[in-house]
Design a protein that fits this description.
Layout lengths: L17 H4 L1 H4 L4 H12 L5 H18 L2 H17 L3 H17 L3 H14 L2 H18 L2 H17 L3 H17 L3 H15 L5 H17 L3 H18 L4 H13 L3 H18 L3 H17 L3 H17 L3 H17 L5 H16 L5 H14 L3 H11 L8 H17 L3 H19 L5 H7 L4 H14 L2 H10 L16 H22 L5 H19 L19 H8 L3 E8 L2 E8 L2 E9 H18 L8 H15 L12 E4 L20 E3 L3 H9 L8 E5 L9 H6 L6 E3 L6 H8 L4 E5 L2 E2 L9 E4 L2 E4 H4 L8 E4 L8 E3 L3 E3 L1 H5 L6 E5 L5 H16 L4 H11 L4 H9 E5 L2
Parallel strand pairs: 1-4, 4-5, 6-7, 6-8, 8-12, 12-15
Antiparallel strand pairs: 1-2, 2-3, 9-10, 10-11, 13-14, 15-16
Helix pairs in contact: 3-4, 4-5, 4-6, 5-6, 6-7, 6-8, 7-8, 8-9, 8-10, 9-10, 10-11, 10-12, 11-12, 12-13, 13-14, 14-15, 14-16, 15-16, 16-17, 16-18, 17-18, 18-19, 19-20, 20-21, 20-22, 21-22, 22-23, 23-25, 25-26, 27-28, 30-31, 37-38
């Protein structure tokens, strides 16, 4: 929100001065031009009146986009020159601008005194503008009721004077204050009215601010994609004007955190702080950015950084006399300390006092503080206090944006837990997760849907704990499924034809191919790599803007709610093992033979360490001469079986087995476990996902597509031989394997085999790729398919590697295919030897062409390989996913 000088002629100034006065509104229409012209005025030996205007313009520019020390110098000179010119109206206007600068510099008392003097000196229209600036400063200080009173007094006067620019500013400010008080509908009405006024002006900076404000309103109403889109649009507008965007940075951090992108929010806040420090900018904005960084660090699981940033922010807010903000910083500080394991009676009292103060401020964060006080009290077994605080926090479950209602349902669940009501816990968890499900249907991007599940992790864990204690294995299975891999239940929403996105993907592919070629030649080109990163950011940004277009089909699982009875019926003679994790320990749920049984597993952390040892061993075994590592890898496989299956390994029966591991164990090579080596094994992110895959019908026509990309050591030697097993498959050789052609042929195919170099991007999993002739085929490309192949075989390294995000979600190539119509995938979770892959793939297709499922064909293919370490490791590295 930005604030210029007057836009109309000040009383007592002659018409000849109009051209100088035009510089004031120009600051927010063309900031650079206004600065240059103001400096030009000072070079002409101007009158005190003209010099006052010029210094005020320079002061505004420096205040909002430059050095606060210079801003204060220019504005004080403008004030003194206005007094010399004997213009009370001019002096009042400058005092209003100076008051804002002093508040932003942290000199709150002096700033408020400047406003009082300005109100005394001004009259009518000018006085209304001074009151507006005071209202803005009161909003900055967190005095929302006083700000609302001042801005309400200004609007009728500005309207009567037909001052379009200042009326629009006042409406925007009033809307922003309404948002701070949680009155979203009132805010949206004022934003709409302000935007209509802005369209009649040339105030480009104010127009950008209006777009930014609409983004904030969209976020407050729960529409994250719209908020991201509007904030990005505002940033583009600001960039054209060449002005920094610190307020936008703060707001985008808030949206990113709500979207589950806390590490990105932390990086953005830190970068903005660096820029602000570099120009000597507003200390108020620095404090707000530090608070945003503290919140982001806490959500990103870095309480140490959160404590450090929140403590500095709290001190700055205190020095700036900003009690509202200081209270919010204190809340984050306590939350971060609790996250480090601290809990004490003093912290309970601090959190309760904070909650009372936030409630008095009418701050939307008050329920969060009551919930915090209740949590700490529960940890100390102060049941009476905990019940009182949680009951207050639970009031927010009935209204407000989704994440606020989630806070209320979490409080309700904890309150029920404290009072011993297992049924109450489960009902609160169900209602809270329903709220989050509804929220996630508004998110079109699969990445956002996956990351948003983190908000429901506590409710899902609480329900599982109660199910373990009071229910039975079947109830525990139902609640394990309730929040497992739910982002895969429906495909991502695709824009019908987004030219900008398609253009960005094409440009990215060209640049990425050139950058990779340069790296392979040993001559990396930094400019190409920078451009690749820029295009990646642009593509990702456009995909995050996509809004979900329809609610979940039938229910929030993309169909019917999970039915354990239906699962047992569909398993037949087979078995499904779902691994749930409670309090860091694996719980093995063995489904089959008409019942669900529970067995105790080991510690998840130990299993993760063992899985990493296995991965390291498989990487070594992918190279000839590493045979000595084979016994070590096999021993690790035995240890993994003990940790992950325990006694359940003895009760698996002879039929096919479906493994449903938690996201953090997605890289386990299941065929390495002794009890599973000779079995038909497939893996699914969830039991619900397996049921969906099993119900998926193959497409008519039975088209097979074989793709051979560049860069493989064997040049995809299996492809010509595999082609001979099928009637008339579509074969795309290296130079014909362009991304657009590959996607065209893959769409709706019955079987696809892609032999191409695979790259997993842990830093940005949606850019994991397969190398084609014209560059990388990325996850975003697969998501453009109307229907992905019914079965797909990815015969290169790391194609089954996935990133664990959210509560229990996975992002990567395999999970991009499953919601789009693919019922079965074969892929590798580790580096593999290209030459050893060829006989495995040939044996695999022999089984597929004979009518076997992917799991059956992969089992037989492993058995057909030579009995040496290299080929054994290659067979273990590949996994069958799904149910085809």
């Amino acid at each position: 929100m930005w604030h210029a000088g007057p836009s109309t002629t000040i009383r007592g100034v002659t018409a000849g001065n109009d051209s100088v006065l035009e510089l004031l509104p120009m600051v927010f229409a063309a900031p650079g031009d206004a600065l240059s012209r103001a400096e030009g005025v000072l070079d002409t030996d101007p009158t005190p009146l003209h010099a006052s205007v010029a210094h005020q313009v320079i002061g505004i520019w420096q205040r909002d986009w430059g050095d606060m020390r210079l801003a204060l110098d220019h504005l004080r000179r403008a004030r003194d020159l206005a007094a010399r010119a004997d213009s009370a109206e001019r002096e009042a206007d400058v005092l209003g601008t100076l008051g804002v600068a002093l508040v932003h510099a942290g000199r709150t008392r002096q700033g408020l005194a400047a406003f009082e003097r300005g109100v005394e000196r001004g009259s009518g229209h000018t006085r209304a503008r001074v009151l507006y600036r005071r209202a803005y400063s009161l909003w900055v200080l967190g005095h929302h009721r006083e700000a609302l009173e001042d801005v309400r007094r200004t609007i009728p006067v500005l309207r009567q004077a037909d001052d379009v620019i200042w009326t629009a500013r006042a409406l925007t400010l009033r809307a922003t204050v309404h948002l701070a008080l949680g009155a979203v509908e009132r805010a949206e009405a004022d934003f709409t009215a302000a935007e209509a006024l802005w369209e009649t002006t040339g105030q480009e900076h104010d127009k950008a601010d209006a777009v930014e404000s609409r983004g904030l309103a969209a976020f407050r109403s729960g529409d994250v994609p719209a908020a991201l889109r509007l904030l990005d649009e505002a940033e583009e507008r600001y960039a054209k004007l060449g002005t920094p965007t610190f307020m936008l940075n703060i707001r985008r951090c808030e949206v990113l955190m709500a979207a589950g992108l806390a590490p990105e929010a932390l990086a953005e806040a830190d970068a903005a702080i660096g820029v602000l420090d570099g120009i000597g900018g507003q200390s108020t904005r620095k404090a707000e950015l530090l608070l945003a960084a503290a919140r982001a660090a806490r959500l990103a699981g870095d309480p140490g950084t959160a404590i450090a940033r929140a403590a500095v922010a709290e001190r700055l807010f205190a020095g700036q006399r900003r009690t509202w903000w200081e209270t919010h910083a204190r809340l984050v500080l306590i939350e971060a300390r609790v996250a480090t394991g601290r809990g004490s009676g003093r912290l309970v009292a601090d959190a309760a006092r904070l909650a009372e103060r936030l409630a008095a401020f009418q701050a939307p964060a008050a329920p969060e503080a009551w919930l915090l006080a209740g949590r700490i009290a529960l940890g100390l077994n102060w049941t009476t206090d905990a019940e009182r605080y949680l009951r207050i926090a639970a009031r927010s479950r009935r209204s407000g944006p989704p994440l606020a209602r989630m806070t209320g349902w979490a409080a309700q669940a904890l309150w029920a837990r404290a009072t011993g009501s297992g049924r109450g816990v489960l009902e609160a968890c169900r209602r809270g997760l329903d709220v989050l499900d509804d929220h996630r249907t508004t998110l079109g991007a699969s990445e956002l849907r996956a990351r948003a599940t983190a908000q429901g992790a506590e409710l899902a864990a609480l329900a599982q704990e109660v199910s373990l204690e009071r229910g039975g294995p079947r109830q525990l299975l139902v609640w394990s499924e309730r929040w497992r891999a739910t982002a895969l239940a429906t495909p991502p929403t695709r824009p019908p034809a987004d030219p900008a996105l398609l253009s960005g993907l094409t440009a990215f592919r060209v640049i990425a191919a050139r950058a990779e070629a340069a790296r392979m030649d040993g001559r990396p080109v930094p400019t190409l790599e920078r451009e690749q990163r820029r295009l990646e950011r642009e593509i990702r940004s456009r995909t995050l803007h996509i809004r979900g277009v329809s609610p979940w089909g039938g229910d929030r699982f993309g169909g019917d709610r999970f039915d354990a009875g239906r699962l047992l019926e569909r398993l037949g003679e087979g078995r499904l093992v779902e691994l749930a994790v409670l309090d860091g320990r694996v719980q093995v749920l063995l489904c089959g033979g008409g019942r669900v049984r529970r067995f105790a597993g080991g510690l998840l952390a130990e299993a993760e360490r063992e899985a990493e040892h296995v991965q390291a061993g498989l990487r070594r075994l992918a190279h000839p001469g590493a045979e000595a590592r084979l016994p070590v890898v096999e021993a690790a496989g035995r240890k993994l079986e003990e940790l992950l299956l325990g006694e359940a390994a003895r009760h698996l029966g002879p039929g096919p087995l479906v493994m449903v591991p938690p996201a953090r164990l997605h890289r386990v090579p299941w065929a390495l476990l002794p009890s599973l080596r000779e079995r038909v094994v497939s893996v699914s992110p969830s039991a619900s996902g397996w049921l969906r895959a099993r119900a998926t019908e193959p497409p008519p026509g039975g088209r097979q597509v074989l793709v051979r990309g560049p860069g493989l050591a064997t040049c995809g030697a299996e492809v010509p031989e595999v082609a001979g097993r099928y009637g008339r498959p579509i074969v795309l050789e290296q130079e014909d394997a362009h991304v657009s052609r590959v996607l065209q042929e893959l769409d709706g195919a019955a079987l696809a085999h892609i032999a191409a170099h695979g790259v997993f991007r842990g830093d940005s999993p949606m850019f994991s790729s397969l190398r084609m002739a014209d560059g990388p085929l990325i996850v975003h490309d697969f998501e453009r398919l109307a229907r992905s192949p019914y079965r797909i075989i990815l015969s290169s390294c790391d194609t089954a590697r996935l990133a664990s995000v959210g509560a229990d979600e996975l992002l990567g190539l395999v999970t991009a295919l499953l919601p789009l119509g693919t019922a079965g995938v074969v892929a590798s979770s580790a580096p593999v030897n290209d030459a050893a892959v060829v006989p495995l793939m040939l044996a695999l297709h022999q089984g597929i062409s004979a009518g076997l499922s992917l799991g059956e064909a992969l089992r037989d293919a492993r058995a057909a390989l030579p009995d040496d370490a290299l080929h054994q490791a290659t067979g273990w590295a590949f996994t069958a996913f799904g149910a085809a």
